[in-house]
Specification:
Elements lengths: L20 H7 L2 H8 L9 H5 L6 H16 L1 H24 L5 H28 L5 H17 L1 H9 L10 E9 L4 E11 L32 H15 L1 H11 L5 H7 L2 H19 L8 E2 L6 E7 L2 H4 L9 E5 L5 E5 L6 H17 L7 E5 L3 E6 L11 H12 L7 E6 L7 H17 L3 E5 L3 H5 L1 H4 L7 E9 L8 E8 L8 H7 L4 H11 L10 H16 L1
Helix pairs in contact: 4-5, 5-6, 5-12, 6-7, 6-10
Length: 556
């Protein structure tokens, strides 16, 4: 793998969070984020490959940011990266598929597609660099590679010679065979190539293939039932095809013998780089088309993670035309701070955590990020614990699973770590859960770790003075703003997050009412299915009596 366009002077750094990667991908919805990044493109880079490129080194992040700035300032260069990523993806798949077809005709076709692909790539890059000279270190390097390859490959002469050839045989999509069946009709005694056509039977041609279709022998024909004769059948057909186009094939062979396809390997080795930047450009463009800003982060250095961002928003929601996306500001000062976040159910707490976590991850990639502006000291690690169930094999309870994650996480964090906890410890009592969470936050503050814990434990807020004993002013309270309900309506979630004290109401009963699972609604549904004679009269007194019995049972 060639990392020249991903690291300054070939400098390769360690990626983030090898031990926590799987959980972070799930908790921060990174697979969905990457899917959105490459949506609509005919090539993909998976989330694991991108995660491997994360870095906390400002030099690496800045190197990639500068390349993206170069691309955005040069429309021709920007367009060429999308095209080149697609060409390299197809060429690698074509090389893989043709590799097992040991035949001079297949080898010649492969050589043609490699050399013509190289000429296409070099032409596009040379024109783009002539339109606007590069400014970034990475694009200056690519411009130098382009010029050297242009000269060694003699692209103008190559393109002129290829333009004089008849190359239709490379793109034929069907052929007709005549068979002489002898004996019982189950054996082929002889066959001949009767004709060829550019009209498509299938999506693949004899010497080329469609990306989503495997090549098995000669496309558009059925395989002979006796598979032991398959290699012979393919060789015979290709030999006849060669005889049919003998003159044109010899002319192409004579031209390609003058040139080398070695330079294409440099670009094939950089396929991840081109796909990486095409993805960054795609995210920028798709969000921009929806009216959302995507900006270059201002990188800072420091001993502690700090994030000062305005208008942070979840890109997944921003790309969904059916929802309203609400941006929020994020403030983690250089002195370090740990926030406790609460608010009504379904008011945006998890979305807020996910948005901030994705922003930190995209910064570590060197992408432009979804917000209005951001100044950041990059994190060296992201640690997420989101409330979940038991382990997959049921060997551990929910509480045990979370405590085990905490045990594994806490020793590894430091002042350059960023922590996101989403409703941890909820399988125990609020009093005990709050005390454990308080002790964890104090331990993190001892190491100047910043982060957020979202919780419905209102008792935890009462422990803030206790947590600030050794770290005054380092624990903050965040709330999701919910406006009071008008008579007969639901309280309105604004999805805005602001500093403030919690209102001890999660509006859970409202949500239960919305989905018709309150006690009164359940009894009414039962009555609706019963005869009037046996129905239960639902009164406020009855509901109050039921709730009172429930409370007494809990106390008991």
């Amino acid at each position: 793998m060639n990392y020249q366009l991903l690291y300054p002077e070939g400098k390769k750094t360690e990626s983030l969070d090898r031990g926590r990667r799987e959980r972070n991908i799930a908790n921060l919805r990174l697979a969905e984020l990457v899917k959105n990044i490459y949506d609509g493109l005919d090539y993909q880079t998976d989330v694991e490959s991108l995660y491997e490129l994360t870095s906390d080194d400002p030099a690496v992040i800045g190197f990639r940011n500068d390349i993206i700035a170069d691309l955005l300032s040069n429309p021709k260069l920007c367009e060429s990266f999308f095209h080149i990523a697609s060409v390299l993806d197809r060429l690698k798949k074509y090389t893989s598929n043709m590799g097992h077809r040991k035949n001079p005709l297949c080898d010649l076709a492969l050589m043609y597609y490699r050399i013509s692909g190289l000429a296409d790539i070099l032409t596009r890059l040379k024109e783009a660099f002539e339109a606007a000279p590069p400014l970034s270190q990475g694009m200056k390097l690519l411009a130098r590679i382009t010029e050297e390859s242009w000269q060694s490959t003699k692209v103008p002469r190559l393109k002129e010679e290829l333009s004089c050839l008849n190359l239709e045989w490379l793109h034929n999509k069907q052929l007709s065979l005549g068979f002489n069946l002898g004996g019982s009709g189950r054996e082929i005694h002889a066959f001949t190539l009767a004709g060829v056509s550019a009209q498509s039977i299938g999506r693949s041609s004899l010497l080329f293939f469609s990306q989503d279709e495997e090549i098995e022998g000669v496309s558009g024909t059925k395989l002979i039932p006796n598979f032991s004769t398959f290699p012979m059948f393919q060789r015979r057909v290709l030999k006849m095809y060669y005889d049919y186009y003998h003159k044109d094939i010899k002319q192409l062979s004579g031209v390609l013998d003058k040139y080398s396809d070695e330079a294409i390997q440099n670009f094939l080795d950089m396929d991840l780089s081109f796909a990486f930047y095409a993805g960054a450009l795609s995210l920028y463009k798709r969000l921009g088309d929806r009216g959302f800003p995507c900006v270059k982060p201002t990188l800072k250095t420091g001993k502690t993670v700090s994030i000062l961002a305005k208008g942070v928003y979840p890109s997944e929601l921003a790309l969904d035309e059916t929802v309203v996306t609400v941006p929020n500001d994020v403030r983690f000062t250089e002195e370090g701070k740990f926030y406790i976040l609460t608010g009504a159910n379904s008011s945006g707490k998890t979305v807020f955590l996910t948005s901030v976590g994705q922003l930190v991850w995209l910064v570590s990639l060197g992408f432009y990020v979804p917000c209005e502006s951001v100044e950041i000291v990059p994190a060296s690690g992201i640690f997420t614990i989101f409330s979940g169930g038991e382990t997959d094999d049921y060997s551990d309870s929910r509480m045990g699973n979370e405590v085990r994650q905490l045990r594994d996480t806490l020793p590894a964090v430091n002042s350059r770590s960023f922590i996101l906890f989403n409703e941890p410890l909820t399988s125990t009592s609020p009093k005990e859960g709050s005390q454990i969470a308080s002790d964890i936050i104090r331990s993190l503050l001892d190491r100047s770790v910043v982060g957020v814990v979202a919780t419905h434990f209102f008792e935890l807020f009462e422990l803030i003075p206790h947590m600030e004993e050794d770290h005054p002013g380092k624990v903050g309270s965040l709330i999701t703003v919910t406006l009071p309900a008008k008579p007969g309506e639901m309280a309105r979630r604004t999805y805005k997050v602001t500093e403030g004290s919690p209102a001890s109401n999660s509006f859970a009963l409202e949500i239960a009412f919305q989905y018709e699972i309150t006690m009164k609604q359940i009894i009414e549904k039962v009555n609706a299915r019963c005869s009037s004679a046996s129905s239960i009269e639902v009164t406020d007194e009855l509901c109050e009596l039921i709730h009172q019995r429930e409370k007494e049972g809990q106390k008991a």
